């Protein structure tokens, strides 16, 4: 076997050992098949579907998202309250109310006071319905009197009609916001309905304005219930807040984990892409042979009378192909290949007339090879040299092709 071919083969094997991804080049599929056939299970071939496999591995490696833990519904416990004085609410039609904006004459004031006196007599005799009638007459005669409303409210309490009492007490407070009788009557009426918090508030205000023993007695029953309700409310407000905080924290952690997973996946894909981009032999294009074009230069530049069209000189002395070679091939090589090389490839350079170090050491050419537009044009020309004509007008591509032709021309 020719010693030069053996040397070329040795260099090729060394390159494959240093960068196994070279064997993914389609032009070397025959060699890859041969390696796989003699070393089953030990091939370092990188299949073209590696990127898809990486995506599958990424998906498999992802930890399944945990189902969101459902927080149990917060069920409030019952409160033990003293409701011995609570009554059924009265649903009678609202009582007659006066118009506090009217002008009250002295005569009406006097008549109102007289009606009130009759009401007090009826109350002392336990005639509450009669008392309500006299007090209603007194209110209509003098609707600006908070005392009249307050007195009628106290009678409704005796009759266990808390809603009617609350309406009268509220009317009294609208006329006189400092009416102790109004706060007292409304507070007692609210306690009769089990409105402990509101009752405690009204009774405390009444006690500040005009303290009496009845207010104190009612507060002793109202306050414990009000305190229990307040503590109960605070407890469950705290539990709901804790539940909501946990939910927010879980969502924050979930988003953080998803962002981290997305970042790791993007980082891994970027590293994989970078590795594939740098998969060519040193000094050449990705996936190509040392110093060569991607995938080699199949068949040389066949049928090129006098060089590339429109570029004087072309490959000097190359009418119809390389000197002495078969059409589209180099001397002694397989049709469509370089001498001693693998079909479709150009290992080791073009002995005798091409010094690839001049290309690899030319900064302008190496910079141009990184330009996708230049690379696309070069590959187009390599597939069909006749395509050179359509790239001659490109100021970025034409000078590069011309310079490379000069390099291929060999030493002068």
TrEMBL record:
Keywords: Repeat, TPR repeat. InterPro entries: Hip_N, STI1/HOP_DP, STI1_HS-bd, TPR-like_helical_dom_sf, TPR_rpt. Residues 280-346 have a biased composition (Gly residues). GO terms for cellular component: histone deacetylase complex. Residues 362-401 form the STI1 domain. PROSITE patterns: TPR (PS50005). The keyword Repeat applies. This is STI1 domain-containing protein. It comes from Erythranthe guttata (Yellow monkey flower).
